[in-house]
Amino acid sequence: MNELSPAPRAYDPATIETRWQKAWEDAACFAAPDVPDGTRPKYYVLEMFPYPSGRIHMGHVRNYTLGDVVARYKRARGFVVLHPMGWDAFGLPAENAARERGIHPARWTWDNIATMRAELKRMGLSLDWSREFATCDPAYYGHQQALFLDFLEKGLVERKEAFVNWDPVDQTVLANEQVIDGRGWRSGAPVERRKLAQWFLKITAYAEDLLAALDRLDRWPERVRTMQRNWIGRSEGARVRFPLVAPIGGIDAVEVFTTRPDTLFGMSFLAISADHPLAAAVAERDAKAAEFIAECRRLGTTEVAIETAEKRGFETGLLVRHPFLDRTFPVWIANFVLMEYGTGAIFGCPAHDQRDLDFARAYGLSVTPVVLPPGADAGSFAIGDEAYVGDGTLINSAFLDGLDVASAKRRVIEELERNGCGTGVTQWRLRDWGISRQRYWGCPIPVIHCEACGIVPVPKTDLPVTLPEDVDLSRPGNPLDHHPTWKHVACPRCGAPARRETDTMDTFVDSSWYFARFTAPHAATPTKREAVDAWLPVDQYIGGIEHAILHLLYSRFFTRAMRDTGHLGLASGEPFAGLFTQGMVKHETYKGPDGRWLYPWEVEKRPDGTAVHKETGEPVTVGAVEAMSKSKRNTVDPGAIIDRFGADTARWFILSDNPPERDMEWTEAGVAGAHRFLRRVWALVTGALPSLPPRGTAPPEPMSDAARTLRRSTHRTIAAVTQALESFAMNVAVARLHELANAIAEAKADQGDPSLSWARREALEALIRLASPMIPHLAEECWSLLAPGEPMLATEPWPEHDPALAAAETLTIAVQVMGKLRGTIEVPVGADEASVFAAAEAEPNVARAIAGRPIRKRIHVPGKIVNFVL
Ligand code: ANZ
Ligand code: ZN
Question: Which atom in ligand 1 lies closest to the alpha carbon of residue 352?
Answer without folding.
Answer: 31
